[in-house]
Amino acid sequence: MTxxxxxxxRVAAGEAxxxxxxxxxxxxxPREAGARMLVWANGQNGTVGxxxxxxxLTGQARRMLAAGEAFAVQEYPLGPLLSQxxxxxxRVLLERVDADRAHFLDALRMAETSxxxxxxxxxxxxxxxRKCVLEDRERQGGNTxxxxxxxxxxxxxxxPCHADFVMMEAVDPQKPHLVLFGAGHVGRAVARIVSTLPFxxxxxxxxxxxxxxxxxxxxxxxxxxxxxxxxxxxAGSFFLVFTHNHTxxxxxxxxILARGDFRYCGVIGSKTKRVRFEQxxxxxxxxxxxxxxxDCPIGKIGLNSKSPEIIAVxxxxxxxxxxxxxxxxLTRKVAYEY
Length: 338
Description:
With 338 residues, the protein is α/β, with parallel strands linked by helices. Helix content is 34%, strand content 26%.
């Protein structure tokens, strides 16, 4: 359950809570800007990093509830004061969420279910806080947090935390799509891990013996034609290929690279397999730029074990690194570095 869903549930039950959001980060910190948690009298949802910072913020949130405070903006150095050694600083917004915010929470729910990117605008001015949800028609993909002063300029990191500011949170509710081909030992190990990661996953294996296979809530589709599954996949999908048949592996890789709009394409194999695939792909007219983006072997992050479980960990790490690289580039384009 997300913080927003939990907030709706608490408000519907007539209970107030406090939303804690990391607005900005300088240096090392347990969580990134945009991380949030919801705190109420006898519980919480989400995390802003755990440790003493979270403990202090949870206590502060409950004192706000008891005192009836509307919001607070605070800056915490992550050093001796908090018995933490991260060495960075975080700026945190704590805001009361109750029945008066029900309309905002409803707007958020509609934005989330629409599946389209949206913006959360939080304005702190004159001792008051206002929030609204806006459709984001200009941006596609990624989540960022940006702070601006009252003139709309990127916020000076030296500005006092009690000054008026606007926080813009750009949110894409859609999870990136991941398509898996193969339900053998490695496929099942990968499925088990990616089920816990931020992907919307589809899983295919045409072998009849895998009909009904279910790993951590992911089901294998055995009736679909693999080539058709590639053709029907969303633009910008991630693809992982580890079937039982090299000929099928090649056909899938060819179809994925020919699309050109994939975000990641990895196939299990050796360096020799990659060389052979590259030769065939060039002969079959696949563009050199697309071939260069093929990851083979997959899971090449320095682990030498060929255990399916360890390969799965390495492959999952590669997927997350690809996502993080995209996010870093997006943040550089649209967010002011605090």
